[in-house]
Structure formats: C-alpha cells, structure tokens
Design a protein that fits this description.
single chain; alpha/beta; 3 strands
C-alpha cells in the first residue's frame, strides 16, 4: 500500500480514531490526528502531509 502521510483534522475524537483505524486496516501508515485547526496548521508546518482529511465545521475563530 502507499506510504502517503495522512493528517486527519477532526474535533470529534471517536470519529478521528475510527477513521485512523480504518485507514490503518487498509494498509496505510497510521495517520496523524489534529483535533483543531490551529493544531493542524502546526503539524503541517512541522511535517507536510500528502493528504489532509478535514472536518469542515471545526469550532473556533474563523477568518473570512
């Protein structure tokens, strides 16, 4: 299977962990999880992923 680095951005822990385990069961390297947009930005800056699976309705400050 691909060695793509995947980042899951999801504020619901159960949903994030379920998605992480499903992707791992499909043969992907265990995806990293960020539980907020701010945490996701930090993780992306440290180690850019190949794919981000992101909840589009995260709580917090919005810049529009």
């Amino acid at each position: 299977m691909s060695q793509a680095k995947i980042l899951i951005v999801e504020d619901e822990a159960i949903a994030a962990l379920d998605l992480q385990s499903r992707l791992a069961a499909l043969g992907y390297p265990t995806p990293d999880i960020a539980y907020s947009g701010e945490e996701a930005v930090k993780k992306v800056m440290q180690q850019p992923p190949d794919l981000i699976l992101m909840d589009i309705m995260l709580p917090g400050h919005r810049r529009c």
